[in-house]
């Protein structure tokens, strides 16, 4: 299964980055029983936050969906680090929580989160189908447009 997942990632032209180190006093992931909890991931690309500002003012929905995709890629990078490189141990993405830095009046957070949801399902298939939340926020760390955390069932 791991080779299948890696092949899908490669077919999409995605290279999973090295999992980012925490920016404060927390760990990037915790395994408890059969669950892997991934701390919030920002839209990091090439070592920096790639999408900045408030969605609906500084960033349009398409740009924010790209930010959500980058967050999802970073969630998978953390999962790969936590699972000793074996993404095949993912049984199911249980839940994604999306935090979208939103301008006053912006109400399409759910559309932004589709960027992450669609990518996860494309990569993991049925194991990627998940529950989720999409919440508007006044601001996020480092002025990121989106932050996503995850709960994953593992083998």
UniProtKB/TrEMBL annotation:
Q: Which organism is it from?
A: Ferranicluibacter rubi
Q: Tell me the protein's name.
A: RidA family protein
Please name the Gene3D superfamilies in this protein's record.
Answer: RutC-like (3.30.1330.40)
**CDD domains in the cross-refs:** YjgF_YER057c_UK114_like_1
On the tree of life, the source organism's domain of life is Bacteria
InterPro entries linked: Endoribo_LPSP/chorism_mut-like, RutC-like_sf
Please give the coiled-coil regions recorded for this protein.
none
The record's annotation in PANTHER family points to: ENDORIBONUCLEASE L-PSP_CHORISMATE MUTASE-LIKE DOMAIN-CONTAINING PROTEIN, ENDORIBONUCLEASE-RELATED
Record-annotated Endoribonuclease L-PSP/chorismate mutase-like domain positions:
6-145
- Identify the SUPFAM superfamilies for this entry: YjgF-like
């Amino acid at each position: 299964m791991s080779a299948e997942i890696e092949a899908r990632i490669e077919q999409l032209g995605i290279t999973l980055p090295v999992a980012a180190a925490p920016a404060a006093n927390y760990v990037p992931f915790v395994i408890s029983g059969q669950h892997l909890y991934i701390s919030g991931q920002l839209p990091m690309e090439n070592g920096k936050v790639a999408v900045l500002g408030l969605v609906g003012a500084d960033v349009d929905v398409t740009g924010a969906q790209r930010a959500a995709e980058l967050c999802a890629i970073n969630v998978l990078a953390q999962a790969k680090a936590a699972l000793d490189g074996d993404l095949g141990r993912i049984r199911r993405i249980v839940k994604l929580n999306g935090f979208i830095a939103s301008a006053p009046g912006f109400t399409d957070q759910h559309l932004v989160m589709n960027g992450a949801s669609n990518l996860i399902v494309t990569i993991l298939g049925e194991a990627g189908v998940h529950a989720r939340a999409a919440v508007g926020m006044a601001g996020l760390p480092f002025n990121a447009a989106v932050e996503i955390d995850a709960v994953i069932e593992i083998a």
